[in-house]
Write a structure and sequence with these properties.
The protein contains 14 helices and 15 strands. It is an alpha/beta fold.
């Protein structure tokens, strides 16, 4: 077994420069089961970031392990393509469409959410004959070229990033409203800004609008339902297709429906998925209406590894496990418990500025001062270190890296939530005591 130091040295020597890691002393993880992961010394951690919002049904679920062993034992084909028939991809498509919003009945499988969004953006431009796409500031839609051109974070963008045919509307960020509104004075200026953006930054017609129902990398920003209702009408009035990016919000994570698009009744033309779809397996999907799919006819499109048996099997089983074990209901209940507990914690832990999200997709925004809302970026990084010492792994996000992200497996129990809350509270107390 390679030591942490050996792995780190090889990464420094051979990986690309942007490849980073969490923690001052990088963490090597070797084993996992359920919500727990284990380092090379056998130390146990609560995985409350779920492999970066990927683990929905829990690490190494017995049903998935058994099915994969059976495939290997029976020498089932490991790789095939859409050029050949294979039941696993069609079985997954059938189950996924059951969970889709009304009118969406076509699906294409990819390797990742980035690729799924690439296909959706291409389909929107093909079906409308337009090129301009509206996105949101603070958004994130993947690391491939077109997807990154719709990223609302300078830290993710490169000089070579294409921006032609791209424009951004203001973010629906209630805690830091760009219009300085409060809930009692809000008239959805952020939704109206989508129309203003189209009127002033395009020729009056668009190919698409793309948005996450909860903005993931942006810090789990969760706009109210009415925002999406209003925006979808605007998008369709200007000829565009609505793309709902559910790479992080899908697979029941938000505690209502399998897809948050369906729960929020967003009139979407396409929905993209990945991460929790395969419970960690490298698979993404784009679902769309037949009318959009039909416009792609007459052209060639292909994905070498899309629809491979092992990935599609894991995704189908993950859907079944989420249903059978009532994990969506659990996500709703445990998420509500975590939110209320952290809000109570904020009365004494003054670094907590905002607690938000849906289900088990929760953001805790840290600020130096609850009145001025100054970003507590260094404090967030230090908090992660302190949580790790106490056996709790969390993520971080936000434009300034000051949002602690909670996205545990949907299997998390009340006792495990309490353990996570204890570690968080103790870490915040230690941080405040140090005066960091």
């Amino acid at each position: 077994m390679s030591s942490t130091e050996e792995i780190l040295e090889l990464r420094k020597k051979h990986f690309l420069a942007p490849i980073v890691h969490y923690y001052k002393k990088p963490l090597q993880l070797l084993r996992a089961k359920g919500i727990h992961v284990y380092d090379e010394k056998g130390k146990e951690y609560l995985d409350c970031i779920g492999g970066i919002v990927c683990i929905s049904a829990g690490h190494n679920h017995p049903r998935i392990k058994e099915a994969l062993r059976k495939m290997l034992d029976e020498d089932e084909i490991q790789h095939t393509t859409t050029l050949y028939l294979n039941r696993h991809s069609t079985d997954l498509a059938k189950e996924l469409i059951k969970e889709a919003p009304k009118g969406i009945d076509r699906v294409f499988f990819s390797n990742s959410g980035s690729e799924a969004n690439e296909v959706a953006l291409m389909a929107a431009r093909q079906s409308t004959g337009e090129t301009t796409v509206v996105n949101l500031r603070h958004s994130y839609h993947g690391c491939t070229s077109t997807a990154l051109s719709h990223c609302g974070h300078s830290t993710w963008r490169y000089r070579a990033q294409p921006t032609a045919g791209v424009t951004s509307a203001l973010e629906p960020y209630c805690y830091r409203c760009p219009f300085n509104k409060k809930p009692e004075s809000c008239d959805f200026e952020c939704a109206k800004n989508v129309e203003t953006t189209i009127q002033t930054s395009t020729h009056g017609k668009i190919a698409a609008f793309i948005a996450e129902p909860v903005m993931g990398v942006g810090g789990f920003i969760s706009p109210p339902k009415e925002y999406f209702t209003r925006v979808a009408k605007i998008v369709h009035n200007y000829g565009g297709k609505y793309i709902s990016d559910e790479v992080q919000t899908g697979a029941g994570r938000c505690g209502g429906e399998y897809l948050l698009t369906k729960e929020l009744e967003i009139d979407a033309d396409m929905v993209t998925m990945a991460k929790g779809l395969g419970n960690g397996a490298p698979i993404g999907a784009v679902m769309m209406k037949t009318e959009v799919s039909d416009t792609l006819g007459g052209k060639m499109f292909f994905n070498t590894f899309g629809s491979d048996p092992y990935q599609t099997l894991q995704a189908r089983l993950s859907i079944e496990i989420i249903r059978d074990e009532k994990l969506i209901q659990n996500a709703k209940q445990m998420g509500a418990f975590l939110v209320e507990s952290i809000k109570t914690m904020s009365r004494t832990r003054k670094l907590i500025g905002d607690v938000r999200g849906r289900g088990l997709l929760l953001g805790v925004e840290l600020v130096k001062n609850q009145e001025t809302k100054e970003h507590a970026s260094a404090e967030t990084a230090e908090l992660m270190e302190l949580c790790r010492e106490r056996g709790l792994l969390v993520g971080k996000g936000g434009l300034f890296g000051n949002v602690v992200r909670f996205a545990p497996p949907l299997t998390i129990t009340r006792a495990q939530c309490e353990q996570a809350l204890k570690a968080l509270d103790e870490s915040l107390f230690e941080l405040e005591k140090r005066g960091v």
